[in-house]
Design goal:
By secondary structure, the chain is an alpha+beta fold. The protein has one domain: Sandwich (Jelly Rolls). The protein is built from six helices and 18 strands. Strands 1, 2, 3, 4, 5, 8, 10, 14, 17 and 18 form a ten-stranded mixed sheet that branches. Strands 9-15-12-13 form a four-stranded antiparallel sheet, with no helix packed on it. The protein has a two-stranded antiparallel sheet with strand order 6-7. The longest helix is centred in the first third of the chain and has 22 residues. The protein is globular. The chain starts with 5 loop residues before the first strand and ends with a strand. The relative contact order is 0.21. The protein binds 2-oxoglutaric acid. The site of 2-oxoglutaric acid has 11 residues, from strand 10, strand 15 and strand 17. 2-oxoglutaric acid binds next to strand 10, strand 15 and strand 17.
């Protein structure tokens, strides 16, 4: 039986089928998902334009994560929802005359998923898919999980995801650092052995972990899809920047279809 943890050098259809069909698979890498000329144009024009009004979190980004807005209370969630359509449009317009890779990914998943795909909606309003993240020198993500289900029942989405993926499209890559590391460990398996993060799902101590099962150094143009229900981290970028367009893909059971958000 095939028990690989990474699939690489394939197209999105093959990657999607493998990620759904192979329980052992942690990561899929689709090289050249963003054409080289689009990445070059992005570095010269789009990244500076979109990041003009960015804020620093563990990375710099033009919009906060939906989950952070939710965590920050009613006023934060209202201002996030009011801004979301504009954020989506700004990224689309900044890529003109090229296609925005976030829109392309959204369309392709809509075609691939058996019951289609759509933006996550909260209170009948769309959530952003297409966060631009700049991992400037020395920025990193400690080992963590990304699972929207951890926000239920407070989020009250009436959706049940059986799997969640992190979707990262790489526009710029650092000369050193910025690797994606993935461990074949679930949140439940960490809880069982009594290991927890700084908060519930973020900040597991790397010193208490074995070597990662997969380490990938992303290249410009890569689309990398990681099972974000498995422990993962981003190593410090130490020469240059790592800039991605990022979001999440959640797969539901039954006929509801897939959802996308950032
Ligand atoms: O940029 C990456 O490779 C992964 C980002 C990440 O850790 C996340 O989206 O949670």
């Amino acid at each position: 039986m095939n028990s690989r943890s990474i699939i690489s050098g394939v197209d999105l259809t093959t990657a999607y089928d493998a990620l759904i069909g192979e329980p052992s698979l942690l990561v899929a890498r689709i090289p050249g998902y963003i054409p080289a000329d689009v990445c070059a144009y992005a570095r010269g024009h789009i990244i500076p334009e979109i990041m003009r009004n960015s804020s620093r979190r563990i990375y710099r980004s033009q919009v906060e994560a939906f989950t952070d807005a939710f965590r920050n209370g009613e006023q934060a969630i209202e201002s996030y929802l009011e801004r979301a359509p504009r954020v989506i449009r700004e990224l689309r317009e900044a890529f003109h005359p090229y296609a925005n890779p976030a829109d392309t990914f959204r369309s392709e998943i809509e075609e691939l998923a058996p019951y289609g795909a759509q933006l996550l909606r909260f209170r009948r309003r769309p959530v952003v898919f297409g966060m631009m993240r700049s991992w400037d020198p020395l920025l990193e993500a400690l080992p963590h999980f990304d699972m929207l289900s951890e926000f239920n029942p407070a989020l009250d989405l009436e959706l049940e995801f059986f799997e969640q993926f992190g979707v990262n499209m790489h526009l710029e890559a650092p000369c050193r650092g910025g690797e994606l590391n993935v461990w074949d460990k679930t949140l439940d398996s960490m809880r069982e052995v009594g290991v927890s993060g700084e908060n519930k799902t973020y900040g597991f101590d790397p010193a208490r972990l074995p070597e990662p099962d997969v380490t990938i150094r992303p290249s410009v143009g890569d689309l990398i899809i990681v099972k974000s229900t498995r422990l993962h981290s981003v190593s410090k970028t130490d020469r240059g920047r790592r800039v991605t367009i990022s979001g999440f893909l959640g797969l539901t059971r039954g006929k509801i279809g897939a959802r996308l958000w950032s």
